[in-house]
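Quick one before lunch.
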Amino acid sequence: MLEVTGLTKYYGDLCAVDDVSFHIDEGDFVTLLGPSGCGKTTLLHMIAGLREPTDGRVNLRGEDVTDRAPEDRNIGMAFQSTALFPHMTVRENIAYGLRMHGYDAEERDTQVQEFLELVDLPNHGDHHPNELSGGQQQRVSLARALAYEPDILLLDEPLTGLDRVLREEMREWLMTLQRELGVTSLYVTHDQEDALSMSDKVIVLDGGEKQQAAHPEELYEEPANEFVATFVGKSTAFEGTVTSVDGQSIVETDATRVVVGDRDRADGEDVSLFVRPEDIDIEPVQATADGGTAAASTSGSTAATAAATVDNAFPGTVEKIANLGNRSEVTVILESGETALANTARFPNIAVGDEVIVTFNSESVVVV
Ligand code: ADP
Ligand code: MG
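Model of the magnesium ion complex:
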């Protein structure tokens, strides 16, 4: 449906987009995710025809559109700043795009009303943009981009600047609308939550280069490199060198060793390890009758079973407990120096300053 090949853009000496290729299937919702300044807008503008690529091609519905003017590409666009014309009514704003795409007066009236209803603003046609809330303006901007039935919809951070609640509402709404219309969409964002919650596919960009293109689940569970692992989702990170012991891979870090299981990694290879917070357990260390210490699990299992089934156990001290509503996120400084992050029950039976044992299984470790 959309095929981008080797797209590259230099601004003088600065390479803003570096040889990026990807494709989008008909009807899919694809997200371009990356930090500010990584080249997302530049890439989107090259697809739309608003900026000329230094190199590379853009194919839309099997036709090479690289040298076509924006209005000859049948692409719809909505941006962070909604760019509605302030002196025009909502109806006129939407009709303007239709006129540019050759709709006659009668067709324009029909389309405007249909799309106003679609974005839940059936009675707002005669309002001016400044009489609408931020979320409503965004919806008008979407109606304007969709009314002339583009082959693909490009969205550049449309939810940035909206508050958290509205943002979540708009996400839901946008997804429903996209599915209803079946319109192929490319959505640009720096927000990993946007990307993970909405997309059929996420393309991660950093420094103008494509890092990975994958389904959200794969991106989270099998990040292609260190950048993706740290940019998408939180984790506890270790760095070290692989050695094999009894058919298992062990990663030796400066101060400790992490068992990662059977990974088919060469001895001596330097790797980074990531463990997601939901894969980590924390157990408080309790004094025993004979003066030693033992771990008592926060999840109810006994110290003996925990020790028998867990591949990795590290002592540490609780630094922070953040209540996130339905769960808590506990930060532990390990004796080996790393900072571990674990999800626990909403009110874990531990406190800041407690000595704890952090445990996780070898299979849950992401090795990159
Ligand atoms: P993003 O949308 O991911 O924040 P941009 O595509 O806007 O990134 O910018 C990518 C890089 O290109 C940045 O370093 C930015 O400063 C630079 N850049 C963007 N537009 C221009 C321009 N018109 N002239 C020169 N440099 C630009
Ligand atoms: Mg941008």
